[in-house]
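Example record

One chain of 719 residues, shown exactly as stored in the release files.
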Amino acid sequence: MTSHVVQPMPSVLDKIQKSLQTPVNTIFDQLAQQLAASLAAPADAPAPAAAEKAAAPAPATKDSSAALDFVKQAAPAASKPADNKPLRLTGISQEATDEYNRKLAQLKQHFFTELNHSFQQALQRQSRRLGQALAELQLVSHDELEFQLVLSHVESSLLDNFRHPLTLATLRLEHLLKRELNLGQVPIGPVTLGRAFLAAIEPLQLEREQKKNILLALLLNLKRYYGSMLDSANRLLIEHNILPDLTEEDSRSRERAEKTRQEARDKRKKMLGVSEDSDDEQQISAEIAGFISQLKIPESASQHVIQSKAGAPRISKQELAARVDLIRAMPVTGDDGVYRKLDDTAPLAQQLGDKAQLQEYGLNPQAANTISVMSMVFENLLGNAHVPNEIKALLTQLQAPLLKAAVQDELFFGDTDNPAQKLFNSIAEASVSWSPEKNPEHDFLYKKMSAVVDKVSNDFDDDYLIFDEAIEDFFTFKESEEKKTSQLENRIVDRETAQARLHTAREKAGKHIQKKFGHLRLPDAVRQFIDTTWQQALFFIYNKENDKNSVAWQDAMEIENSLLANLRSKEQEDVEVFMIVLEEKLADAGIEASEIERQLQAIESALGAGHDNIGEDLADEDDSDNEDAARQAEEDALLKDIQIGSWLRKLDSDPPIKVKVAAHIKFNDTWVLVLRNGMKEGTYTSQQLLELIRNGKLEVVSNTLLFDSALESVISDMR
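Predicted C-alpha cells for this chain:
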C-alpha cells in the first residue's frame, strides 16, 4: 500500500510532456518505415551495417550480448534529430512487422500512459507502509530480467552522450518539485523513457526475441532524438524562469553528487553480498536478510548485543517497533536555548535494554543483528571527530525512527535511497558548512535542522511519508538560503574576476613591453608611443582575449616586428601600408582618434629619419609560464581535494571557522573563499593554500554520505 499526496500538474511540466509527443510519435513511425524498408530489400543486397547486424536476434541458448552491442555502438551521439532516411534492420520477421503495424496506435497509447504515470509520480510524495513492504515486492521473470538488462545498457549509453543537458534539466526539475531526484525519478530521464518503451511493446503478441529486437530498434531511434528532447525541456523550463542562469560548475557539482550516490549504491550492494545486476526486489530482500542474519557480532562489541533471557517469548516486528519508541527522550538544550547537547551517549542496544527491557523478549537473528548494526553505526557517528557535538545531538535523535524503519523494512540496509537514510545524510551534509554562530538566535540553519528532526522523531510510525515531507521541507529551506547567499557570492566573484583580469592584462602588457623593447635604443617619439599608447593597446587586447595565441595578439606582434624593421631600414617595409595597419589596430583597441593621429605623425617622422643602430632583438618570448610549471605537481595535489563548492576548515582562527570555495580565478591563480552567509572571507593563491595545509592550518571538510560511511565501517570491522 502506498500513500499519495497528489498535486496539480505545473504548466511547465504539462508543456514538457506535450513536447515529447512529436519526437516519440516520430520514433514509432520511423521504425515502421525502417521495418518496411528492411523487408523490401532484395535478398542479395550487400550486408547491412554494424547496427543492422547487431539487431539480429541472439541465439536462444546465449545471452543478449550481441544485441546489446547494437545499443552501445549503433546510434549517433548527436543532439539534433537524425534525418528521416530509413535504416535497414534484420532479425525482425514479416509476422513481427505486421503485428507492429497493426498495433502501432496501441503501442503509442501504452507509451504515453506510462509516461503520464511517471510525470504524476514525480509530483507525488509517496511511501509504502513498512509492515506491508515485503508483501508488495514482485518477483521478476527471466524474460523481464533480459529486457531490464537491455534497458540498463541503454540508460548508460544515453547518460554518456547526454549527461550535461540531462543534469541541467534535473537541477531545474528538482527546483520545481522542491526535492532531490534520483535518475529513476526524472520524468524525462533515460530510466523513465526506457520503462515507457518497455510498457509500449507489451501488447505485441510475439516471441521474446522478436519483442526484444523491436525494443532495441525503438531505443536506437530514441538515442537519435534524445538530445533535442532534452534541449526542448530545458528551453521550456528557462522560459518559465526556472534556474535560467545555471552554470557549468552547477552541472559539474550535481554530476559529482550523483556519482557519489551511484558509487554508494554499488558499494552497498557489494558490501551486503547483493548480486550486482539484480533488479528483483524479492531476491534482494532475501539476500540482505540472509546477510544480516548471518553476521557474527565480535565479542569486543558485546555492548551492542541484546542478551535475551532463555525461553523469552518471541516479539513481532510491530511490537519491536513499538518498544523502540520507549528510548525516545526530550532533547536537551544548552544555556543558549538553541544548540542541543548530547544527553544519553550509551550504545543504542544498551538503551533498548534499559528503557525498553528488550532482554525480556526473544529476537530472531535478523532483528537482533539489525539492532546491533544500528547500535554500532551510531557509536561510529559519536566517535567521528569531524562532526560537531551540536550536530551529533540532532543525529542521535534519529536513532529511534531509523531503527524502527530498519526492523520493519526488509530492504532498509540495501536501499541507499531510503527516505530515513536520505534525511540523515541531508542533515549531515548541511552540517559540512555549519559552525556555531556568535548569536545562536540568528542560526536559522540549526533551528531548521532541529525542527525537522523533532517532527520526524515525534511523528514517524510506519510510513515513510513523514520522512519524504521532512526532506522536501528541508530541501526548500536550503534552496532558499543558498539563493540568498549565492547572489552575494556571485557579486563577489564577478568583482574579483574583473579585477584579476584587469590586473593580469596590465601585468602581461607591461612585462611584454619591457622584455621586447626595454633594451632597445629607440627614438624618443617611438619610446613614448611604445610605453604609453601601444602598451594601452596591448592591455586592451589581452584583457579582451586573455590569450597570447589569439589572432588579435599575434597581429599586434606582427605590427611590432614591422615597426622595428622599418626603424632599422625604411626600404625593408612598405611604410605607408604599415601606418594604415597600425592605425586600424589602435582604433580597434579603443584609442582616441586625436591620440592616434598625434602618435602616427610622430612615428612617421621617426621612421623617415632611419635608425639602423637600435639594438638586436632578444629571443622570442617564451609563452609558457615557468613559474606555473615549477609548482604544477603541488597544485595538482591541492586541486584533487579542493574544488569549487567544497568546504574548508580554517584552524588558524579561534574558534576555527568553515569557509566555502566560491571560485578559482585562473587569471591570477586566486581562490575566493566565502563564509556561510556569502560574505567574502579572503582570497588566496594556490601557493598560499598549500602553505596553510602544510602548516596544519587548513583542512578539507569531508562531505561523504555519513550513514553510508558509518555502515561501511561497521560491516568492514565485523568482517
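Notes: The longest helix spans residues 465-517.
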